[in-house]
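User: Please predict the structure of the protein below. I'd like the answer in structure-token form so I can feed it into my own downstream comparison script.

Assistant: Understood. Taking the following sequence of 131 residues as input:
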Amino acid sequence: MTDPIADYLTRLRNALKANHRIVEIPASNLKKEMTRVLFEKGYILNYKFEDVGPQGLIKIALKYHPVTKAPAIQSLQRISRPGLRQYRDHNSLPRVINGLGIAILTTSKGVMTEKEARTANVGGEVLCFVY
């Protein structure tokens, strides 16, 4: 697999389109941190890390609207990819849908949203947009 982050986002996207409640994704430290950010910002219901096999699994409970059954995550878009990395400094961090969505960044201070990176005055690699 050449791009595990794109695989992570695709598994989430496919599970949301199929209206699944839980999705299992092979674990890595970066994926665990991205899952933590999605949970803190309210895009997923819950998550659990399991030590199964050599790599481990991340089980993510997806979040849907109780009445309309619409998923909480409308779009997952990969920005930085292995062929073209996207780095931004703290002055030029992107705003997703004028602040309604989030951009997940990996910085020298860990994985965080663009709003947290802006307040911490750090830049980094823009991994994806979520809204």
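That's the full token string. The chain has three helices and eight strands.
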